[in-house]
Design goal:
The structure is a homodimer. Helix content of chain A is about 40%, strand content about 15%. Chain A has 12 helices and 12 strands. At the A-B interface, helix 4, helix 5, strand 2, helix 6 and helix 11 of A face helix 4, helix 5, strand 2, helix 6 and helix 11 of B. The structure holds a DNA duplex.
DNA sequence: CCTCTCAATGCAAACGATTGCAACAAGGCA
DNA sequence: TGCCTTGTTGCAATCGTTTGCATTGAGAGG
């Protein structure tokens, strides 16, 4: 197509072509002020003509940096929720943007936790300069221990007491409380929580829900937890089962949008009108929530900002700074699934 | 916590500890038959005691392999569909499983196509042993050209005439035809296609749709295409707009499940009953389809198998074999969104 | 007892870049 | 003219492995 001169594959080749030493080429391509303007230009031009791109493996070895960040998702086996989860994949997408923009590569790993030393293995292989862990899952202890290793990492998840590693995430307690209070304001009094508190984030959301109920108006029913993993199937079944118990309720606060959507489906197919008979509020703010019927009221997490923060905090840790955890506020997005007025 | 001996960070350290030469350590860890059983065991034990893991950068440089596969998603800018798309992320998830299982790392990249030489850049940096391109998007020409480069890659997407690179994907034409014929069998005659044929896969689906209509029973209306990008918003708006034209239709064949779900929402909110007045069939078989209301009839693509094939074909190409494209059959999954009988 | 084989190990050269330091030329200043 | 500074460039060590080849020692066969 374009007349491509025989391509230079190594820096030495390029140096020969340019009639200079490889060190000069290296510096030229690195935009070092040590090499003269005209020479630098010539080398850069030559490089692009010959389709030369620095071999990153060699560069990494020598410089000790990999220009790569690992993103790892520990998936508690019981909750078979995968990258498939729209929330995770949305976060992933934002992370990809952010990491790419900072000039890094993104190495994606899945970890299925009944696995020893996953963190140490990951860290020791030195395939990346730092690690972003998405969701604490059941691995809080591992992460606490990892904080003593010298490998930089940050975690998306919940803020726990006595935590010694850097976490970025929504203020789950306040956010959940906000969501529940919204239901209370609308006059709902028997609000059910659906979710599985095995993961810290969900547990915190449950706490926020409890707090809201505890401060609710007279007649507010006590907390009820319907246990359901974060998968559509699990949530659907759990909702049906709860319906079969016959216990009355007029609202659902779901630990995630995926759960909420599945719960809505279970309710609908049982002939229950949403929001007239049962109002539903989710958590996460996934795109699809706006497009199910009825559209889902939810507590949005700001993933754009979350991803940005994860990456910048990690890069700062890599640079040697000590960084603090960040708690972001959630945002209530009101849509059809909980009627505006009773 | 666990009494960890001062960790050996380099192979030389470990060799010193074991009282052998580094080459012996290298061989021992690589399970080479050249090193004696007892020695090998001792070294392996020592390595795990000291938390030693081979530095993969160094290994890669020396051996010329990176043990990493790139996964890249070219995102045509106009269709702002991202990793967020449940279909993509599901495929991604399966790929992650498969790649990990084969002992490779997965390097994820996003490419926003009005970008020159993205493939060559990717290829030349040699960060991975091969590339999996998800979706041809608008980049068919680039891929055709890339086929002449020596970098192994495979593509998930549609099978086009004269294509000289390896593609794995569903037989879009047949599958779409199957879906449309199902609607015809149910007595629907005015079937609308929603989607954007700018990407080859969608175009092929449209062709299948056309074929089905061409062979449909008397009274079958001519093809109608409602253009909509693959995002929820776009599909929602496009559906509403089509409704405003007042043109009658009794079924929708959507180019993807995401489109289908958004279309259903648009229909529902316009007071149209699904499936009584308008039946809907999607394409992809994303999980969520089973959990919207009404549950979505769709044409499922076998992503588990797809991911497996992509990886094995790529690894074979890396090994130097020449590999053929693979066309997989789609599977019609009948659910509520198109009534069983008219 | 001497060689020959074979298994196991050590030696040292790559892999392809980065980077501190030396070298060199030109120009400024005394 | 001589010396020092400054701006460029070359030299060579280095990053941590892998791997072809040389070396060693022991056991077998003549």
């Amino acid at each position: 197509m374009n007349s491509k001169p025989k391509s230079a594959t190594t820096m030495a080749d390029l140096a020969r072509l340019a009639g200079v030493h490889v060190s000069t080429v290296s510096r030229a391509l690195a935009d070092s002020p040590l090499v003269e303007q005209s020479v630098r230009k010539r080398i850069i031009k030559l490089a692009s003509q010959h389709g030369y791109v620095v071999n990153s493996t060699a560069r990494n070895l020598r410089s000790g940096r990999t220009q790569t960040l690992s993103v790892v998702i520990p998936l508690a086996h019981e909750l078979g929720q995968g990258l498939t989860d729209p929330f995770f994949s949305s976060l992933l997408s934002h992370l990809a943007d952010e990491i790419t923009e900072k000039g890094y590569g993104m190495l994606l790993q899945k970890v299925v936790p009944p696995m020893d030393h996953w963190f140490d293995q990951l860290a020791a292989a030195r395939r990346s300069d730092g690690i972003i862990v998405i969701g604490q899952s059941t691995e809080h202890k591992v992460l606490q221990a990892a904080a003593y290793s010298e490998v930089p990492f940050v975690v998306w998840g919940g803020h726990l007491r006595g935590q010694n590693y850097c976490v970025v995430g929504t203020d789950n307690v306040s956010a959940a409380r906000m969501a529940t209070e919204h239901l209370l304001r609308l006059g709902r009094r028997r609000i059910v929580f659906i979710g599985d508190p095995v993961s810290p984030e969900i547990k915190l959301r449950y706490e926020g829900y409890e707090q809201a109920l505890a401060h609710g108006p007279a007649g507010t029913a006590k907390p009820v937890m319907v246990k359901a993993h974060l998968t559509p199937d699990a949530a659907y079944q759990a909702t049906l089962e709860h319906l079969r118990t016959g216990r009355k309720f007029d609202a659902v606060f779901a630990a995630s949008d995926v759960i909420a959507i599945s719960a809505m489906r279970a309710l609908s197919s049982s002939g229950i009108a949403i929001p007239e008979q049962v109002a539903v509020v989710g958590f996460d703010g996934i795109d699809l929530g706006a497009h199910v019927h009825p559209a889902l009221t939810t507590l949005r997490q700001d993933l754009t900002r979350g991803a940005k923060l994860l990456v910048t905090q990690l890069l700062r840790r890599i640079a040697g700074e000590t960084v603090e955890s960040v708690k972001m506020p959630g945002e209530l997005v009101v849509r059809e699934s909980c009627g505006e007025s009773r």
